[in-house]
């Protein structure tokens, strides 16, 4: 009996650490778990998902504590890193930056600037989150003190598994395995929930970050399964063998957060039919209909949508 109680206590401590922004008693939504498991069965790769209803604190999870590549979801912790610097007074939010050719990573918007182009920091942040601009993101990562500084902030806030790997000393092996960043579905969902709840860095920083997360250009996967009238904060990511997305949905019957991630996918095609993209859309629709069963809205058939 004593051994059982010690094991239960240890599980409770670890579970709490993995959910730094979860408040109150948490229970499992077994019906939703079964729906998610059925939808994920047969996926050619590995997939994980974590869902929490922020009104009821009921959760559903499948492989929620497995580590996956973040791909561009890593820009959420970078966002926290740069706002932590701003909050400390080490970076001015409205300051003007000067772009240099040495910063170029790819041919995105920021990477297309001419040398000596002047641009305000808020615009770089916006491009990082809304358009997922890589050159701008690496620029902000450096301004935040680098991956090591961002990882220290994550650790101090209870996130044991979210890490920035790229351009971070001591993390070459992790970068080789997971890429730019790594996370569990649970932790990435709870990081965005922390921002939504105003508990990341400061209420003012959380509010500004959450507004950025609410302006998404890449809305063709999980977001496409939610009515366009519903407010959503999100960030997605994709590399050849991994697809991911994290969202807070302000649903009529209560907000909910979820994160889905894949890795080691057999399907590496950069098309809308990619199995990872298809899984994200399927899971998003299942969760929406589970929480909003009487909502009559249906997404357009994929053949009728405007894709980009």
Automatic annotation (TrEMBL):
Pfam families, per the entry: Beta-lactamase2
Domain Beta-lactamase class A catalytic: 48-262
Any one biological process term the GO annotation gives: beta-lactam antibiotic catabolic process
Phosphoprotein found in the keyword field: no
Alphabetical keyword list: Hydrolase, Signal
Cleavable signal peptide: 1-18
Its EC number(s): 3.5.2.6
Superkingdom per UniProt: Bacteria
Catalysed reactions, semicolon-separated: a beta-lactam + H2O = a substituted beta-amino acid
Single annotated GO MF: beta-lactamase activity
EC primary class: hydrolase
Family affiliation: Belongs to the class-A beta-lactamase family.
Protein name: beta-lactamase
Lineage of source species: Bacteria, Pseudomonadati, Bacteroidota, Cytophagia, Cytophagales
């Amino acid at each position: 009996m004593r051994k059982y109680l010690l094991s239960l206590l240890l599980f409770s401590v670890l579970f709490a650490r993995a959910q730094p922004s979860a408040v109150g008693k948490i229970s499992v939504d077994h019906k939703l778990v079964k729906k998610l498991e059925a939808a994920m069965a047969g996926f050619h790769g590995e997939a994980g998902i974590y869902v929490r209803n922020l009104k009821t604190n009921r959760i559903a999870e499948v492989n929620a504590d497995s580590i996956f590549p973040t791909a561009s979801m890593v820009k959420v912790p970078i966002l926290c890193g740069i706002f932590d610097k701003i909050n400390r007074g080490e970076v001015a939010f409205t300051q003007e930056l000067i772009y240099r050719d040495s910063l170029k990573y790819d041919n995105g918007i920021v990477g297309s600037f001419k040398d000596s182009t002047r641009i305000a920091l808020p615009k770089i942040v916006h491009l990082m989150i809304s358009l997922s601009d890589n050159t701008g993101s690496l620029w902000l990562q450096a301004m935040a003190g680098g991956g090591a500084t961002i990882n220290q902030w994550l650790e101090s806030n209870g996130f044991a598994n979210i890490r920035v790997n790229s351009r971070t000393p001591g993390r070459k092996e992790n970068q080789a395995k997971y890429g730019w960043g790594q996370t569990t579905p649970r932790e990435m969902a709870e990081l965005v929930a922390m921002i939504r709840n105003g508990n990341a860095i400061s209420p003012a920083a959380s509010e500004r970050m959450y507004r950025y997360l609410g302006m998404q250009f890449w809305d063709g996967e999980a977001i496409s399964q939610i009515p366009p009238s519903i407010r959503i904060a999100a960030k997605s990511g994709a590399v050849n063998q991994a697809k991911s997305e994290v969202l807070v949905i302000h649903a009529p019957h209560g907000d909910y957060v979820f994160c889905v991630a894949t890795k080691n996918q057999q399907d590496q095609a950069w098309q809308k039919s990619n199995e990872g993209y298809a899984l994200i859309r399927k899971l998003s629709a299942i969760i929406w209909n589970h929480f909003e069963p009487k909502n009559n809205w249906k997404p357009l058939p994929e053949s009728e949508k405007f894709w980009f």
